[in-house]
């Protein structure tokens, strides 16, 4: 990749971004202009309140892409946001951020990703006063509309849920971010930020209109659900031992090729196809899969998602073979992390402590907690509870 070639760098920025681009990139022309000069900040904000799973990995890889494209990438550990969402106490959230989460980002993304805590600046007098200024310019209805996709399970939103998107917008300015990144569920929040920062609102921080890009959301491993940190069977966590990765994927929803792979809104509903499409093919280019016996056996080489889906629909690739391929890929991909957590369990123990806190407050059911504990056994022993 030629560092000075704007076309190649733009291709890196847009790699694996949700489509259509005119909806999920704000805007391509703005980003093209940014690439012509300087080294700009980009970021993703995370609630570091649970295990990192494959759904999170999409944006971790994107932060690495942005570094290669010439940006400075920031992973914001939004500890104050996590507290607003009742996910844990400040000390535990911070400890998880700077141990487990930091390790994963540097191991699977890039050691050059800067890790920042939201509490470093979100509790400053200037930030609080700017937040109050924003609250005078945005209606409660507009704030909830921006937040509703993320907190859609709430029928009766709290005041904190109205503050949440205003803080996300303000974070962008306080981190001097020119390109904000998030999943497609973050689009309304970024649209809100672009809208309010295009007005002459008086702020203590420099005001400008940020660009934004949005990455696809992976469907959960359970049919019809999303990947949730509190439902272990819905996701593959990066610290899951190999036998659990295989078990979860074997049980995962993966309709045969003869069935429709998309939901009524045109979104891919097969999580196994989604994992290969968004997490494997963009990084490795070409994969080799077993061809079903009905098509003569042997192997088939796939170099695009279109090829994969067509072969899967024809029955040339069997669901179980696809699941085994995905399992083997991530067992290898996460091997270095497992070694780090095994050699220093202080990197993963804070996550266990946080999830135990959540369990004690009813955020985990008995079955879910039992499943979560299994993933910690190789690192913390089987006497934990």
Keywords:
385 residues, alpha/beta, Rossmann fold, Tyrosyl-Transfer RNA Synthetase, 3 domains, two-stranded antiparallel sheet, 17 helices, globular
Neighbour order of strands in the largest sheet: 1-6-5-2-3-4
Low-confidence runs: none
Q: Compute the number of structural domains.
A: 3
Anisotropy-based shape = globular
**CATH top-level class of the largest domain:** Alpha Beta
Protein described:
The protein is globular and about 70 Å long. The chain starts with 5 loop residues before the first helix and ends in a 5-residue tail after the last helix. β2, α4 (54-68) and β3 (72-77) form a beta-alpha-beta unit. α6 (90-109) packs across α16. Helices cover 50% and strands 10% of the residues. The protein folds into three domains: 6-215, HUPs (Rossmann fold, 3-Layer(aba) Sandwich); 241-333, Orthogonal Bundle (Tyrosyl-Transfer RNA Synthetase); 345-380, no CATH class. The protein has helices at 6-14, 21-24, 28-34, 54-68, 79-84, 90-109, 125-135, 140-147, 159-174, 187-196, 242-251, 271-284, 305-314, 319-333, 335-343, 349-360, 366-380; strands at 25-26, 41-46, 72-77, 114-117, 177-183, 211-215, 287-290, 299-302. The strands form two sheets. A six-stranded mixed β-sheet has the order 1-6-5-2-3-4, sandwiched between helices. A two-stranded antiparallel ribbon has the order 7-8. It is of the alpha/beta class and 385 residues long.
